[in-house]
Amino acid sequence: MDKTSFWKTKAGALTVGFILAMVSFIIILVGIKMNSLSIENFGLAVVIVAVLISPIKVFMLDKWSKKED
Question: Core-most of 14, 46, 48, 63, by most CB within 10 Å?
Fold first, then answer.
């Protein structure tokens, strides 16, 4: 039986997404404090990446790796 790394599972991808969402919250707060729209927009981009990590992994990367096998 193969041991799969936690970070390569769906739960690992969701954990990475959660961590990115928390980091983006801090980035957005720093952008608000500094009155910097570009930092706030960067935080928003990180939120979008965090939300899309799991669907991209499950529906695209895993399917492409199955086709190669």
Answer: 46
Q: Cα–Cα distance between 13 and 49 in angstroms, integer?
A: 12
- In whole angstroms, give the CA distance from residue 36 to residue 16: 26
In terms of Cα–Cα distance, which of 61, 31, 34, 55 is closest to 44? 31
Single-letter code of the amino acid located at 57: K
Query: What is the reported pLDDT for 1?
Result: 57
How far is the C-alpha of 23 from the C-alpha of 41, rounded, in Å? 13
Tell me the three state secondary structure of residue 31. helix
Q: Low-confidence residues of the chain, pLDDT below 50?
A: none
Provide the CA 57 distance to its chain's centre, in angstroms.
10
Cα 52 from Cα 57, distance rounded (Å): 8
Residues whose CB falls within 8 Å of the CB of residue 4, separated by 6 or more in sequence, listed in order: none
